Every structure is written in C-alpha cells, then in structure tokens.
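Here is one chain, start to finish.
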Amino acid sequence: MASSSSSFSRCSFSSSTPTLKYKVFLSFRGEETRKNFTSQLYDAFNRENINTFTDYKLNRGEEDSPALLTAIEQSKISVIIFSEGYGSSSWYLKELEKILECKNKYGQIVIPIFYRVDPSDVSHQEGEFGKAFSQLEDRFKVKDPGLLQRWKTALTETSNLGGFVSNNTRDESALVNDIVEDILKKLNDEYLEILVGLDSKIEKIENLLSSNVRKLGIWDIRGIGKTTLAGAIFRKISKKFEASYFIRNIREESKKSEGLNDLRQRLSSKVFGDKNPNIRFTLQKRRLGCALIVFDDVTKLEQMECLMEDFDYSDSESRIIITTRDEQVLIKYGVDPIHIIKMEELSRDEAFQLFNKYSFGESGPTEDYSELSSRAVTYGVFQ
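Its structure:
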C-alpha cells in the first residue's frame, strides 16, 4: 500500500492538490483513433484495473465541457495520443495546456504517444501534423497570436518529454503492452490500493516464489481477478530478476495465424535482449537463467510448449506464473497441485469496498450514496 512518502505522492507539490479520482486521463482525437488504437489501449487499461477517464464517460454534447478539464486535474497520469489531426482543434490544445499546467503545478506524470506521426513534426508543427495545425494558425495568428504561441510552446514541451512512437514498434498490440507496463511501473505500489481482498494471496504467492517454487498457477473458471493478482505479483517482485515479461491474452493471441509465434519471438527478445525479434532459436535452446514470466489466460498445454520452445528450463532460477480457467492445463505442464492458487469470490465487505473504489474514486461515496452502494453490492454478491 502506498504511503504519503511514496515517490508518486503529489502532496509535496501543492497544499491545494485536487481530489484524485482517476489513474489515467486519456487525451486523443476521436475521429482518428477512437475505434482502433485508443479503443485497444482503453480496453487494456480496464483489464489491468487502471481507472481511466476518456470522453466515453461524457454525454453527447459534453465533449468540450469543463468536466474534461476537471477530470485532468483529478488524474495521476495524463496520456496524450498525438495523431496527424490532433493539432487541428483548439479544444485538444486546450486539453494539452491544462495537462501541462497540472504537470507543473501538481507533479502530474505526462506520457506522450506519437501515433503514426514523428515527434519532431509535433514539436515543430511540420509534416502532416503541421498541415493540420496550420488550419488553426490561419485562424488565430491575427485573432489571438499569444494563444497560438502558447499552443506551439505546449506542443514542443510535450514532445521533449519522450514517450512512445508507434512507427518504432512492429505491431500495435506490442505497443499497447509496453505502454500498460510503463504506466503500471509508474503507479508502482499505489496500484496495489485497489487489490481489495487479494492481500493474503499476494503474500502467499510471494512466499512461495521466494522459496524453491519455480512454477505456480492461478486458476478459476470465472474472470474474478486472476490477471489482476498475477499483475500485482509481477510488479512487486520483477525487479529482483535479470529479465521479466508479462504475456497477456494468450487465449486471444493463439486464435491468430501467427499469434503464438509472434509472442514467442517477443518473449525471446525480451528475455535475451536480442535486437532482432525475428531470430528463432530452435536449433539450440538457450538457458532461461533468472527470469520472471507470467503467461496470462492459457487454455492449452500446446500453447505453453510453443512459447517455451526456445528455452532450456533445467537448472534455472526463473519463476513462471500461469493464469488459466482450466486447472488441468497447470497439472499437465507440471505445476504441483499444492502450488495452484484458486481464486475465490470477495466477501460482502470486500465487494463493498471494491464497488466504492471504482464508483466514487479515491474519496469514496458520500453519505447520500452509501446506502445505495450497500444495496447494489448486496444484489451483486447474493443474486
């Protein structure tokens, strides 16, 4: 659990820090990315229980309302997806100004993503991005040249923060994975605040892995926290290993023609640090060494055999965590039954705490909504 001394705490920046309600504020130009990249990223945040604000949460006609600016203030991290047309709207640039204000005033973390645009084009308003920005430039260079210059400065300042460049990544799913991992690392221990009811399991798994348990399974036929639990363990202990990798959505990836092979190549690249992710190592397996790997949502033994084909697991100090809905997959892969953790439903009190965390953010429900929350949780748990 995070304390007031956490490196992420914003208390030291201002005595009037806004109440924090969201982990991430997602800024993007809807026409260009809403139905593809932004949707993938938002879904990935949801899978990791990263409470995210987007304009999905606004009613029609509210997209340019003060509610967006308030949500920026109430977020720990702002993620800005720069696409070609992002700079064509004065409203997106107002969002950007507000984000930088919160960065400078409250210490908010800002992560730029350059989606099919070059960072230098955003910084200098050139290329296709510059063409879109010129539409505003023509309108404001006489109307409000000071405001125009502030926007240019904001674009340059944000571009200089670094971030993620989609053109440098082979596929978007890998990019999404890298962004999620980066955000989870930045959230660090504060992320564990929302893991209601999992404290004892986290401690148990950590103790097992710190002993001589090399393979551990987490299973349940329902979707009640397997990935969340595995993710919490991964972020808590991954720094103790020479290499670490969290492989998500194996069930879905295996449905693609080259899905498992792509995952296998990325895993080999991540563990061994190979610059070329397409290198295959089938001629001679390499010793896995000391790595932490999470295989999430495994459905078949063949998936594990494919993903681990490049590795010599003998005499290894590595640890493997597998989440699945089928306990037999774990047993067939050699996981000792005593090292298989079964997920259980939350108690009523835990469910009430979790419901309030997601419904009302950091501050919890007001007195007016406390009784309503209790009734909603009672219905959900006992129906």
